Amino acid sequence: MHVVILASARHPLQQPFAGGLESLTWALVKGLRARGVDVTLFAGPGSDPALDAREITVLPLELSDAARADVSMPAEPWLQEHHAYLQVMLELAGRTDVDLIHNNSLHHLPVALAQSCPAPMLTTLHTPPTPWLEPAIRLMDQRRSQFVAVSGYTAQQWGHVTDAAVVHNGVDTEVWTPGLGGDDLVWVGRVVPEKAPHEAVRIAAASGRHLRLAGPIGDPVYFREVLQPLLGPAAEYVGHLDVPSLRTLVGSSAAMLVTPAWDEPYGLVAAEAMACGTPVLGYRRGGLPEFVIDGCGVLVDPGDVAAAASAVESVTRLSRDACRAHAVEHCSLDAMVDAYLDVYLTLSRATLAAA
């Protein structure tokens, strides 16, 4: 099977990853190729050379003076991304050597142009509905273009426009390996308001535990004005780390705090933590309750800092072996690849039968 994977054009698939979407797509390509699938990857500039990716880019963006003088012209980065995906989709519309296109981007254009391609398209829904993607899905012929969501919660959010199957995200349990634990708590993610690392600092402070935070600073103003004033001897920001460093950090921690201020579609950091044997203490929202189970973590009502702080000691006593075993069976890259291959074959057979 020859599968084309469309990744995000905004960030490269390269460590340290910009976020969970980039980490996930990198692992999916690796997992599919390990099963013998012929994968052509289209990804953002600067991606890991080992992935042998085709760049999703149009540089320079050629615009006439007359076009640039148009007062309604959108921001140039928006135009670059739009025309980059347009270039990819025009190429795929003329290719007959592709069996299936797996769209892992968050852009509407691949979905809008899916029916122009000979190969069927599978799109993974990684986010709640967006105003660009929702109308594109509503208008398309879904007999040759299907959807999966990263959690049952996310599938329900999109239920008004498509009946998406569920394929939970997976982590490479040969990369995210068990650690010995430690005394500190850990928080990992993009440093942005919707991830609410400031809530993790409050939980750690109320529990009397030291907290280490890691991840890219996606919102410098939020970091400077909200998070940084909370840092000190009890809570430290250790930077934007690559996977080996993150694995060491998470594996040497007593528990992972997951404190989203929005309905997290999945929560990849929780799966990574359990693969390291580190139990999870988080907010009960979005997709987290679907895989953070009793014995591997505790979920409390969103924003309930007091309840989370009071649960810290019990969470840190959970079995690290049980966390690891659960992650290997239910949250692994192998489990995710198995599920995607089933969907690929079902969609491919349905397309052939309808031809």
Automatic annotation (TrEMBL):
Keywords: Glycosyltransferase, Transferase. SUPFAM superfamilies: UDP-Glycosyltransferase/glycogen phosphorylase (SSF53756). The keyword Transferase applies. Gene3D superfamilies: Glycogen Phosphorylase B. The keyword Transferase applies. Residues 185-317 form the Glycosyl transferase family domain. It comes from the Bacteria. Pfam families: Glyco_transf_4 (PF13439), Glycos_transf_1 (PF00534). Residues 19-174 form the Glycosyltransferase subfamily 4-like N-terminal domain. PANTHER family: BLL5217 PROTEIN, GLYCOSYLTRANSFERASE. This is Glycosyltransferase family 4 protein. It comes from Pedococcus aerophilus. The lineage of its organism: Bacteria, Bacillati, Actinomycetota, Actinomycetes, Micrococcales.
